[in-house]
Specification:
Radius of gyration of chain B: 13 Å
Shape of chain A: globular
Structural class of chain A: mainly beta
Oligomer: heterodimer
Largest sheet of chain A: 7 strands, mixed
Number of helices of chain A: 0
Number of strands of chain A: 11
Number of strands of chain B: 9
Shape of chain B: globular
């Protein structure tokens, strides 16, 4: 049974770095079959793609986030991580991690709320 | 990269059919057959219901179907059921391994 679970601080301070982890069970994070992604949903708004990390090691992120995104794998823990630098209140959102199969977000975590506030 | 446009809300009675539109541009929906649809019950994990415009994961009911014409993709829910009440989002490939989501549609079953 495939399961993804986001974890990390629920509060980040403006200008600091938001860090989240997605723990995967039921699939190997190092499989060449899968890639991994992050999506977010600001309060009262729609979904926004943040970025993706492919099995090749290539990463891609939303141009609107202007290079603030880093996605990485930790194969020893079977999880992948998101770092978003220089956060502002506009980065307050529910953050979802997802497994990408081909070009589709096949499985998602339940999401974790991160609030940016001093 | 602007969000794809969806109607904010739609409603229907049990048994009826509704069609949700998803309008993009020639840079995303119009060029790539990479449109997917997700059902989201608030507080739960979003669920993939349609991928590559028309394909349906094996566990998804055949009451859900997808199509595309030009820059607009559509999701049809036939035989509407109470459990279909949720938010629905489209998503499209947008070139260079990037993606763009729709604005979301809240479906209410009357």
């Amino acid at each position: 049974q495939l399961h993804l679970q986001e974890s990390g601080p629920g509060l980040a301070k403006p200008s600091e770095t938001l860090s989240l982890t997605c723990t995967v069970s039921g699939a190997s994070i190092s499989s060449i079959t899968y890639s991994w992604g992050w999506i977010r949903q600001p309060p009262g708004k729609g979904l926004e793609w943040i970025g993706s990390l492919y099995f090749s090691g290539s990463t891609y992120s939303n141009p609107s986030l202007k290079g603030r995104v880093t996605i990485s794998l930790d194969t020893s823990k079977n999880h992948f991580s998101l770092k978003l630098t220089s956060v502002t209140a506009a980065d307050t959102a529910v953050y979802y991690c997802a497994l990408i199969s081909g070009t589709t977000f096949d499985y998602w975590g339940q999401g974790t709320l991160v609030t940016v506030s001093s | 990269q602007s969000a794809l446009t969806q109607p904010a809300s739609m409603s229907g009675s049990p048994g009826q059919s509704i069609t949700i539109s998803c309008t993009g541009t020639s840079s995303d929906v119009g060029t790539y057959n990479l449109v997917s649809w997700y059902q989201h019950h608030p507080g739960k994990a979003p669920k993939l219901i349609i991928y590559e415009v028309t394909r349906r994961p094996s566990a998804i009911s055949n009451r859900f179907s997808g199509s595309k014409s030009g820059n607009t993709a559509s999701l049809t829910i036939s035989g509407l059921q109470a459990e279909d009440e949720a938010d629905y989002y489209c998503c499209s490939g947008a070139g260079s391994s990037t993606y763009v989501f729709g604005t979301g549609t809240k479906v209410t079953v009357l």
